[in-house]
Amino acid sequence: MADLPAPVPGEDEVLIRVAACGICGSDVHGYDGGSGRRIPPVVMGHEASGVIAATGSNAGKFQPGDRVTFDSTVYCGHCDYCRSGDINLCESREVIGVSCADFRRAGAFAEYVVVPERIVYRLPDGMSFAEAAMLEAVSVALHALRVSDVKGGETALVIGAGMIGLLTLQAARAAGCSQVLVADVDASRLKMAEAAGADTTLLASGTDLPAEILKRTAGRGVDLVLEAVGRDETVAGAIDCVRRGGTVTLIGNITPEVRLPLQKVVSRQIRLQGSAASAGEYPQAIELVSTGKIKVQPLITAVAPLEEGPLWFSRLYSHEPNLMKVVLSPLPAGEVHA
After folding, report:
1. Please, where are the H alpha helices in the chain?
2. CA-to-CA distance for 200 and 149, rounded, in angstroms?
3. Is 190 helix (H, G, I), strand (E, B) or coil?
4. Cβ(33)–Cβ(138) under 8 Å?
């Protein structure tokens, strides 16, 4: 913990008094410096909500006191990608709470954070700050379903029942998938998947998973696999589980490289689709969470004071069992649930 100068918003920016900020898996990966995306010194944290404290001279959409959240992606709004709506692919893309060779953006594990007004969204009155800190992850799950081109009625398999996997399960339901199966190697996470609405949970990996999927689909495979891990064995398993002409959407990003069974992909005409962050799904995320169609409260393991952040990072980094989402708050305990 450190004292830093209070940030000051620029002309098109707003100053947000942070109420809640979730610890993302990418923050944990950055904890030991191995990811190259959290080069010190940097204030991490990009899954956040809070209250407008001040606005820049050209920022007139919000007023002090407004309850808000914000996208993790800072996009320029002018390049070809932004003009076509692919803001997550912006040529000048930056991410809140990330420091790398190309840019440095202070994040929300702090009392205050400054962000561009264009990435800010107003919160419904009934949504708590802790729930709102989950919206960034929900938008990632919704984006994965959007780029998968789901029409409705598909059978889907989610590999990985971590935070993104459990939200992707619910997003698949909201998108109209007729059946959603979830696979993981952690029985406790599969119990959470059952509670979140999975039709079937499978404690399986490696060659056991495709064998079980083929058995359950009369040898055909599922229409869509949403891979939320990002390892050799899970990507290979996803390809073996999908039907001919089906889609494998790659969300997980644990390892920078994986081996690809190219012949299976080509000969079975499988579509491999990457999914990066989100691109305009925040309004949908807010609606689905506020109406209860996507439930985030059961996924929040703890809401803790910001000063306990080092302890919680250590616990998450050590892979302590039964930890899902930890939300940190610089506010008194009662206010973060307001």
Report:
1. 25-30, 80-83, 129-132, 135-147, 163-175, 187-195, 208-216, 232-241, 262-267, 282-290, 309-317, 333-336
2. 23
3. helix
4. no
How is residue 140 written in tokens? Answer: 């990632």
Residue partners of 58: CB distance under 8 A and separation at least 6 = 11, 12
- Measured between alpha carbons, how far is residue 48 from residues 8, 74, 114, 160 in Å? 18, 14, 12, 24
Task: Evaluate whether 45 touches 25 at the Cβ level (below 8 Å).
Answer: no
Name the token pair of 176.
């109209």
Q: What pTM does this model have?
A: 0.95
φ/ψ (deg, to 5) at 202: -130, 120
Scan for tokens 């930056």, then name that residue: 94
Q: For 43-82, what is each residue's pLDDT tens digit? A: 999 999 999 999 999 999 999 999 999 999 999 999 999 9
User: What's the chain's Rg over C-alpha atoms?
Assistant: 20
**204-224 pLDDT per residue, tens:** 988 999 999 999 999 999 999
CA atoms within 13 A on the CB side of 254: 13
Cα maximum dimension of the chain: 63
Specify which residues 51 forms β-bridges with: 17, 67
Could you give the 3-state DSSP secondary structure of residue 29? Answer: helix
